[in-house]
């Protein structure tokens, strides 16, 4: 396994910006769609309400519906530990990575460990609830960032259901989106002030995609 690569085929040679939109704003983790700078669908997570599937398990798919990653909450766990598996489901599979709160007391920071590469650890610092956090590798280098989106045409900060994920060259975009799924579950119920204007935005609109 290459450093920072979980799913082959989603490592970009240049810095890449994805526009991510929650497909429902009523329940944490209901669903996501992620678009590239051309407005093309790259990733999606489908859900149809809180009772449609095990809310402790979520599957990341590509644009065609191929299952890339499954993330599942490990119970019991004081640190809200989640584990990631390649493809769909976990039956007969070993987890590739784990995600957990760094501390029960400090709720914001999150630690990511790769089981096959013990020295490969990531720290997620900041507030996902406010869509303002950064993913660092073991060398404290930035590999991905999550930020609020600004609609340049209306000159407003969009609501937290639309945000940007910026991925550095060499880091796995599917892995980054898998971490977004887990962060949404860990921090989905955390309180956060929403000072942005919530606008119904088409994520394929270039005005909202190209502005971070």
Automatic annotation (TrEMBL):
Pfam annotation, one family: LOR
SUPFAM superfamilies attached to this UniProt entry: Tubby C-terminal domain-like
UniProt similarity note: Belongs to the LOR family.
InterPro entries in alphabetical order: LOR (IPR007612), LOR_sf (IPR038595), Tubby-like_C (IPR025659)
Protein name: LURP-one-related 5
